[in-house]
Specification:
The complex is a heterodimer of chains A (about 475) and B (about 100). The two termini of chain A are about 60 Å apart. Chain A folds into three domains: about 300 residues, no CATH class; about 110 residues, no CATH class; about 60 residues, Arc Repressor Mutant, subunit A, CATH 1.10.10.410. Chain A has about 475 residues and is an alpha+beta fold. By secondary structure, chain B is mostly helical. The longest helix of chain B has 17 residues. Classes of the chains: A alpha+beta (about 475), B mainly alpha (about 100). Chains A and B meet through helix 1, strand 9 and strand 16 of A and helix 3 and strand 1 of B. Chain A: It catalyses: L-aspartyl-tRNA(Asn) + L-glutamine + ATP + H2O = L-asparaginyl-tRNA(Asn) + L-glutamate + ADP + phosphate + 2 H(+); L-glutamyl-tRNA(Gln) + L-glutamine + ATP + H2O = L-glutaminyl-tRNA(Gln) + L-glutamate + ADP + phosphate + H(+).
Chain lengths: ~475, ~100
């Protein structure tokens, strides 16, 4: 179903394109040997190149180029063997050179696409226009002094990938799904950690509105630097609403840069950027054009890990899980790895149910992530093996898992220590059942006169008497037999 | 040709150069003559000549991804006119 906003003059459609800035995972910066790691004392991860000293020459970091190529491959995009760096000129206190080295006319990655899954089960293809490499700027600190801003250049010169989408997005939900998918791909490939809180992934959101069926696009506004998926979705909604009100009042939307204020849930004009679109790009004379070999691209491609979609399809085939289950299991690579360790050589259905059910619940309850899970994949597999070979039943297994989470002991050790082995001795089961039936003669009579539902009651009583350790199938079988006597 | 006053003022603002009103006309003429001079290049017929993007002699040298620099704050801040502890400072930037 298409997303529509209803105004006074009828329905409106929204048109959104996203520019995502993703910080490249690398040791050193894009053009200098200073550390690219987050944090650090102010102005310590800075070389004279980053600080814009005269006469310092940039030298391109090979790994950053490789990361951009890998990402391009992950986006099914064209890799440009020829690309070039340009200077994007603007003045800002945290940009010491007065220009950002970026790629304007010749980006390293061209058109690609991202498939996003929506809540209603449908899939949409969002086009990627391009991906280019550029430098990050430094950080301004405004709250330390009444009259001055403080500048920290630790981030200046860190490599960013700017990933530009086509204006293919038609709802806040699609924008959120696109960002999540992009982040998942970046994390799988290991080119960006996707951490929006620390600013290693942030988005500029281009929004316009039009009447359904209208040709072409109306004027758009760009909302700068939105730093969470939720805010991206909210900002699209409020900005679209604002534009609709302008059009419906007979006005014109001005093309401008705006800021999203999540506290007041509104966007505001950023007048300081009014000259921002006159960047006077020109090729950086300090850098030769970047020419890479197809053989190197092929090498990088061969070394790529399995990507989320391929992994999801493989899990569906190899383990017989549903599409939904597969997408939950592949949301993070670590989860998928964990699952496969558990499911390999085990009962895959059992493994899936336990992963998605009790195991995830245990993670949630303890506030742990898959990386520091209190139970290892091998540990969970051992527990499931005990169910499969009828050593314990499913109900007891839940208890054992809780014990594993608490004590860190292995499943078999817990089963032995607590004597939880399932009772498969039919004699013992029969004895228990006969005691229950004798103690509940009235209910037996009711059952025999047609109250079938009481069967569950007898099962419950028997299991209780056996402290949960009865083999459920045998208990059922024996009960049926004895009740029909 | 001479650049008009509006264009001169805009270029000055982009370059963060303050102009006295009296300077605008003269600068317009000067900049116009620079453009005229460069325009001579248009007299050369470059049909079928691919744009030159470098000397063709060298591929860029690429750097290995190792941290080889940094931790030199005093050098980095040596030219800062108004250093405050570990920071550069600038007149407050208000958004």
């Amino acid at each position: 179903m298409s997303y529509r906003i209803t105004g006074n003059t009828g329905e409106w459609e929204i048109v959104v394109g996203l520019e995502v800035h993703a910080q490249v995972i690398s040791n050193a910066k894009l053009f200098s040997g200073a550390s690219a790691s987050y944090g650090g004392e102010p102005n310590t991860h800075v070389s004279l190149i980053d600080a814009g000293f005269p006469g310092m020459l940039p030298v391109l970091n090979r790994e950053c180029v490789a990361q951009a190529v890998r990402t391009g491959l992950g986006l099914n995009a064209q890799i440009n063997l020829f690309s070039r760096f340009d200077r994007k000129n603007y003045f800002y206190a945290d940009l010491p050179t007065g220009y950002q080295i970026s790629q304007f006319a010749h980006p390293i990655v061209g058109e690609g696409k991202v498939l996003v899954d929506l809540a209603d089960g449908s899939t949409r293809e969002i086009g990627v226009t391009r991906l280019h490499l550029e430098q990050d700027a430094g950080k301004s600190v405004h709250d330390q002094d009444p009259t001055r801003s403080f500048i920290d250049l630790n981030r200046a010169g860190v490599a960013l990938m700017e990933i530009v989408s086509e204006p293919d997005i038609r709802s806040p939900e699609e924008a959120g799904a696109y960002l999540r998918k992009l982040r998942q791909i970046l994390r799988y490939i290991g080119t960006c950690d996707g951490n929006m809180e620390e600013g290693s992934m942030r988005a500029d959101v281009n929004v316009s509105v039009r009447k359904p069926g209208e040709e072409g696009y109306r004027t758009r506004c760009e909302i700068k630097n939105v730093n969470s998926i939720r805010y991206v979705m909210q900002s699209i909604e409020v900005e679209a609403q604002r534009q609709i009100e302008i059009w419906e009042a007979g006005g014109e939307v001005d093309q401008e840069t705006r800021l999203f204020d999540h506290v007041r849930s509104e966007t505001r004009s950023l007048r300081s950027k009014e000259d921002a679109h006159d960047y006077r790009y020109f090729p950086d004379p300090d850098l030769l054009p970047l020419v890479i070999e197809q053989s190197w691209v092929d090498e990088l491609k061969a070394a790529l890990p399995e990507l989320p979609e391929a992994k999801r399809e493989r899990l569906e085939q190899d383990y017989g899980v549903s599409r939904y289950e597969a997408s939950v299991l592949t949301a993070e690579q670590a989860v998928a790895d964990f699952y496969e360790t558990v499911a390999k050589g085990a009962d895959a259905r059992l493994a899936t149910n336990w992963m998605l059910g009790d195991f995830f619940a245990a993670l949630n309850r303890t506030g742990r992530s898959i990386e520091d899970s209190p139970v290892s994949a091998e540990g969970l597999r051992e527990l499931l093996a005990l169910i499969s070979d009828s050593t314990i039943n499913g109900k007891i297994a839940k208890e054992v898992l809780e014990d594993m989470v608490e004590t860190g002991e292995s499943a078999s050790a817990i089963v032995e220590r607590k004597g939880l082995r399932q009772v498969t001795d039919t004699g013992a089961i029969e004895t228990s059942i006969r005691e229950i039936l004798a103690a509940n003669a009235d209910k037996v009579a009711e059952y025999k006169s047609g109250k079938d539902k009481l069967f569950g009651f007898f099962v419950g009583q028997t299991m209780k008497a056996m402290k949960g350790k009865g083999n459920p199938a045998l208990v059922n079988e024996m009960l049926k037999k004895l009740l029909s006597e | 040709m001479s650049l008009d006053a509006k264009t001169v003022t805009r270029i000055a603002r982009l370059a963060r150069i303050g102009l006295e009103p009296g300077e605008v006309d003269a600068l317009g003429k000067e900049m116009g003559s620079i453009i005229d001079w460069v325009e001579q290049l248009n007299e050369v017929d470059v049909t079928d000549v691919p744009p030159m993007i470098g000397t063709g002699l060298a591929k860029p040298r690429l750097r290995e991804d190792r941290v080889t620099d940094g931790n030199r704050r005093d050098d980095v801040l040596s030219n800062a006119p108004d250093r405050e502890g570990p920071f550069y400072t600038v007149p407050k930037v208000v958004e």
